[in-house]
Amino acid sequence: MSEPALPLSDDDTAEKEPSGLIGSAQRALRVLEIVAGAGDGIAAKAVARRAGYKLSTTYHLLNTLVHEGYLIRLGHGRGFGLGYKVGGLYHSLLGELDVDHQLRDGLHQLHLRVSAPAYYTVFRDTDVVVAAVADSPEFPRAQPLDFGFHEAAHATAFGKVMLASLPVRERRDYLAGAGMPRLTDRTRVTAHDLETELETVARSGIALEIEEFQPQLACVSAPVLDSALRVTGAVAFSVPVNQFADRRSDLERAARAGAASISKLLSAKDN
């Protein structure tokens, strides 16, 4: 007999889900995300409460994830934490995105040099994906611009760099699928306005975003090129908008230099 459906949490009811999904898999992944977000030591009762699941169901899910290596049970009754298989998945994904320790080290050096969070994005199929981020407590990344972020290309500096490199038809197909939601009062939400800006980005090799993605945030980005001079990625920096006017020239120079450095690194790997 199939397991009865559990009450949906508020997050679950935010939008109607497509048919054909496996509920038990969804619940297990939800538990995994909760443990990951909480860090080592979350108790089963806390997981059940956050997920909106029955405690008995939560224990079954936790035990399954422990058995498969995606969670561990901490000693002395301290609860649960991420298992070591998760690290393997992460490194496999980094490999798919062609991000190695040299690239991460290079991005970290850019962050230190500029005193601003640094981002590296790539194409993955048709998505524009944040593949690496370098930041620090003094200069933290803008949320939710974290590893794996792949939305709002029309409203981010690195997204504009990537979109500007696409043929017109591919770009229109991408935007038709992704949409151009208004995120702030300054977000460009018409294809005409965005196309005009992307023409400038393609000519200048630099993209700006000032409070289009998020209030009080400004970003600058430059393209990363492969050995055939095709855009394969972008380097970007973000700063509070009240710093942007004074720092703009330095940020643009740093973005161009950083993108050129990573372009050289990637070309050397190909040869």
UniProtKB/TrEMBL annotation:
Residues 1-21 are annotated as: Disordered. Keywords: DNA-binding, Transcription, Transcription regulation. It comes from the Bacteria. SUPFAM superfamilies: GAF domain-like, Winged helix' DNA-binding domain. Residues 85-268 form the IclR-ED domain. Residues 22-84 form the HTH iclR-type domain. PANTHER family: HELIX-TURN-HELIX TRANSCRIPTIONAL REGULATOR, ICLR FAMILY, HTH-TYPE TRANSCRIPTIONAL REPRESSOR ALLR. This is IclR family transcriptional regulator. It comes from Amycolatopsis rhabdoformis.
